[in-house]
Amino acid sequence: AGLFSGFYEHCPILSAENEEVRNSRLKLAQLTAKTLKLGLDTLGIETVERM
């Protein structure tokens, strides 16, 4: 989560310089969220949909 937070801070997703970069960053964000949720679910930690 910390590594993604650093990425998010330094690499704008929705305001990326072009559509290809934006789409790849969106996909990375989606996969990161899915991976974190799966890991937390495996540990029995409840997650929230949004913060």
Automatic annotation (TrEMBL):
InterPro entries: DALR_anticod-bd (IPR008909), tRNAsynth_Ia_anticodon-bd (IPR009080). Residues 1-51 form the DALR anticodon binding domain. Keywords: Aminoacyl-tRNA synthetase, ATP-binding, Ligase, Nucleotide-binding. SUPFAM superfamilies: Anticodon-binding domain of a subclass of class I aminoacyl-tRNA synthetases. It comes from the Bacteria. GO terms for molecular function: arginine-tRNA ligase activity; ATP binding. GO terms for biological process: arginyl-tRNA aminoacylation. Pfam families: DALR_1. Gene3D superfamilies: Isoleucyl-tRNA Synthetase, Domain 1. This is DALR anticodon binding domain-containing protein. It comes from Escherichia coli. The lineage of its organism: Bacteria, Pseudomonadati, Pseudomonadota, Gammaproteobacteria, Enterobacterales.
